[in-house]
Amino acid sequence: MDVCTQVDELRQHIRAWRKHESRIALVPTMGNLHAGHLQLVRHARAIADRVVVSIFVNPMQFGAGEDCESYPLTMDLDKAALMDADADLLFAPNVHTMYPDGTRHTTVVAVPGLNSLLEGEHRPSHMNGVSTVVAKLFGMVQPDIAAFGEKDYQQLLLIRRLVQDLCLPIEIDAVETVREADGLAMSSRNHYLQPQERAIAPELYRQLCRVRAQVEGGEAGFAALEAAASAALVAAGFRPDYVSIRRAADLGEPGVGDSSLRVLAAAWLGGARLIDNIGISIS
C-alpha cells in the first residue's frame, strides 16, 4: 500500500491507474479505524480495481467545544489495518493541504434542507463541514465509486444529494452498519465510554428496535413513540438530542402512504455522543 500526503502525489497515482482504465473507489474516514471502516474498504475492494482510503480529521465539521483536538489518532495501527484490508493507497493530508487559506476563508459546499435538520439542529456547522470536505476529496481523487456507512445515515443522504446536484459521475454505495455483539454501532467515539457507560450503551439500539417493532406492528402515533423512547434513554442514563421517525428517502416528516421509514437517534452518554438508526418497513 502506498501512502501520500500531497494532492500532486495523489493525482500521479490516479493518472497512472486511469491509463489502465482502472475503476477507482474512495473510502473517506477520519481514522481511528474499526471493523466498520474496514468493512467499507472490503466492500470497495470487491467492486473496484483500486481503493483509496483517506484519513483526515476535518476541523470544519466540529463545532465549538467539540472533540476535534482530542479526536483519537492511531495512524500506525490504521496503516497496518488498511494493508491487511488490501487498500491500494492511503491519502493522509494535513489541514493546510485541505484548506490552504484556512477553514474561515474557503468555499463552503452546502446541501439545503439536509444540512439543517436533526444533526444540523444540534451541530449547526457539522453538515456543511462534511459536504465541503467530501466535495474536496471527490475533486482530488475523482473516484468512480465512494463507500459510506449507513450509521451516519443523514451524511449518506447528504452526499448522495451533493453528487446529484453537482452532476458528479460518482456512484455512492451504502454499507450496512457494523455492530458489536450486543448491538452497539461501531464508532471511534465508543472509546470515550467508561466501562459502566459501555454496559449501558446498547440501550440506544434496543430503543430503536423497540420503535421499529411498534411502527411495523401498526402504531401510528409517532410523536408518542419518539417521546417514550427518549424517556427510556433518560431513565437509562443518556441525554438524548433526538429520537425521530423520518421518511427514509429524504428525512422528511412521514406522511400518509410512506412505507419506507428510518428511526434515527443521537444521545450523549457520559462524554460520548452516540448516533444510530435503523430502517422501518410498513406493508
User: What structural class do helix, strand and pairing data support?
Assistant: alpha/beta
Q: How much helix, percentage-wise, in residues? A: 25-40%
The tally of domains stands at: 2
CATH class of the largest domain: Alpha Beta
Number of strands: 9
Order of helices and strands: EHEHEHEHHHEHEHHHEEE
The main sheet comes to: 6 strands, parallel
CATH superfamily label of the largest domain? HUPs
Please give the radius of gyration in angstroms.
19 Å
Q: Remind me, CATH topology of the largest domain?
A: Rossmann fold
The CATH architecture of the largest domain is 3-Layer(aba) Sandwich
Shape estimate: globular
Instruction: Supply the number of helical segments.
Output: 10
Please report the distance between the alpha carbons of the first and last residues.
47 Å
Across the major sheet, the strand order is 1-4-3-2-5-6
Quick recap:
This protein has 283 residues and is an alpha/beta fold.
Keywords:
alpha/beta; Rossmann fold; 2 domains; 9 strands; six-stranded parallel beta sheet; about 280 residues; Pantoate--beta-alanine Ligase, Chain: A,domain 2
